[in-house]
Amino acid sequence: MGIGHREEWITVGETRIPTLIGGRGDPLLVLHGAGGHRGWRRFVAGLAERFTVYAPTHPGFGTSDSADWMESIDDLARFYLWFLDEVGLARVHLLGHSIGGWTAAEMAVMDPWAIDRLVLVAPAGLKPDHGEILDVFYYPPDQLLPMTVHDPSTIPEWAELFGTPPTREQLDIALRNRETTARLTWKPYMFNPRLSHFLPRVKTPTLIVWGRQDRIIPVVCGEQYARGLANARLHVMEDCGHLPPIEKPAEFTALVLAFLDARQESLG
Amino acid sequence: MKLYYFSEMPHHEYADEEGEKYPSLRLAFPNTNFSPEKAAGNYRRYLEEYEFADQAGFDGLMVNEHHSTPSCVNVSANMSAAILARTTRRAKILLLGNILPIQDNPVQMAEQIAMVDLISGGRVLSGFVRGVGVESWWANSNPVHNRERFEECHDLIIKCWTAPGPFRWEGRHYHFRHVNPWCLPLQKPHPPIWVPGTASPETAVWAGGMGYTYVPFLVSFEVARELYDYYRQGAAEAGRTVTPDNLGFLICAVAADTKDAALEAGRHFVWRMGPTLRGPIEYFSPVGMRSRAATQFALRARSVSLATMSYEELVDNYHIIAGTPDEVAERFARVQRELGIGHLLLEAQESRMDHATTMRSIELMGRSVIPAMTSL
């Protein structure tokens, strides 16, 4: 994991957000989930071996500026399309996890040409045909955390991420992340009833990744995305919950690199 | 000091062990435990008690509203108020109150309150509340918008009552192209506005700035004084003078012929201090509903939870007043001296307190407590 990274503040309209940038190769935008930006994790470092990763913190999360005028995930999608303009990226690979995956899907239906290859990791955004998306706001954070993963004991970065009691500052940020998530996803809860109608527009090669034991968003949503998108494949990881990049970093990174590299090979 | 009669219209008609199986009596306790037959009788009974309180001389009848909970099955303050508007003659009808942030149609709310004011002959005191989180869940209303919606809903209701229609309203949360309610309140410029408080300094400052009557619920004298200070700060910023008429306080109270009987009856109030407030913080204060300042104030104000207090402590701390009429009058007078208030709201029936006990308490208060309050 020798590739270094830096933090840059990117200004989009009236909103400034910190963005971790590092790696080499074609640009890859990584959008985090409702839990917030978890830093330069193993899977990011792994992806940065072959791609130049841009990993911003969403507005209203972490130390980013607030954007209280935003009401929905499609606002966040428009924000990130603008972000690409500001950074000067005409066409990127895009990887989004959970609500970041939902954001990525909305970006794809808004501007398919901005995205080269798309990776959706347990994305919210669709109403499950069966089952329900867990109401994450109904549970205290300490009860919720174990529900997000399959088996903490198998997670290499568990202790680093969750092993010590959070500091006051971390608690404030966690609360801010939850508030912004509520602002963007409250009703309809965690889905956009119009999104499925637009998915067929997206011909972008797409990899959908899901944990078989995801207790937050049912795997059936992955099947729905795979059916709705014109050129998508669903890969279900065994013994894995809602956080595949954290729970199985090596397997996840290899899977994503193989998918993204397939393009480079075909071009080569 | 004026006295107000209040019942939450509880539905404590199931075995307590059933309720204890769930994380909370609110939201999570299945309504298969609701008994329509019992409720039908209870509604008639509770309304009779309100009507008797009017006859007994209470200055006001307070009604409230909650949802998805056996602690209060009054599901519409306006509906109860409309009934009392016809069946009572004299007392003010205090709605405390309508839960503004969860309303999707403030114009209809303005019409309904105006209609109650008209039917009652101008007896409405119109309380506006933000609601506990349970109500936001019930309405699926985004708690992040709770305060903004409260203020905007309030502004639109006041405009409905005071500005000639038709007019247009394009706000952040409410959008109406043709506002022209053909039902306006009898009281001018509009019914007095009341606002309760439990923990939010912003609400106290806001109420003070607006000159509304402000009523902390079931807090210690110390916390109440601190909230009144916030209220005074808001009033001062707006150049308003604060009088006892601006300040109220809510406690639980019951009178009986003997002290022992009263203390026995008063135990019914313990249910609302603990069991009905049990549950995850997420139910009562979902993310984004409270500001950081309110969260911090709540931690201090509720540093000793009502649920952890013994019955004796609740009585000692004036959260519950139970005694003979003389004892009750003496304690009410103490509350008045401590807080300098003009309105004392009595949660006077709760849990399984029976009809006879409730009626006797109302009768005793009417006979000797209320007359003793007029000089305060």
In short:
The complex is a heterodimer of chains A (268) and B (376). Chain A has 268 residues and is an alpha/beta fold.
What does this structure look like?
The complex is a heterodimer of chains A (268) and B (376). Chain A has 268 residues and is of the alpha/beta class. Chain A contains 10 helices and 8 strands. The longest helix of chain A has 19 residues, at 249-267. Chain A is globular and about 45 Å long. Chain B is of the alpha/beta class. Chain B has one domain: TIM Barrel. Chain B has helices at 16-19, 36-56, 77-87, 106-119, 133-139, 146-162, 201-210, 221-237, 259-266, 270-273, 281-284, 292-301, 311-316, 325-339, 355-373; strands at residues 2-7, 60-63, 92-99, 124-129, 167-170, 175-179, 193-197, 213-216, 248-255, 320-323, 343-349. Chain B is globular and about 60 Å long. The interface between A and B is medium-sized, with 12 and 12 residues.
Overall geometry of chain A comes to globular
CATH fold-level topology of chain A: Rossmann fold
Largest interface: chains, residues each: A-B, 12 and 12 residues
Order of helices and strands of chain B: EHHEHEHEHHEEEHEHEHHHHHEHEH
Shape by Cα distribution of chain B: globular
Percent helix range of chain B: 40-55%
| The CATH fourth-level homologous superfamily of chain B | Luciferase-like domain
Largest sheet of chain B: 9 strands, parallel
Helix-strand pattern of chain A: EEEHEHEHEHHHHEHEHH
Question: How many domain units of chain B?
Answer: 1
Taking all Cα atoms into account, the compactness measure Rg of chain B is 20 Å
CATH top level of chain B is: Alpha Beta
Mean pLDDT of chain A: 96
Largest sheet of chain A: 8 strands, mixed
The CATH architecture name of chain B reads: Alpha-Beta Barrel
Provide the structure class of chain B. alpha/beta
Mean pLDDT of chain B: 96
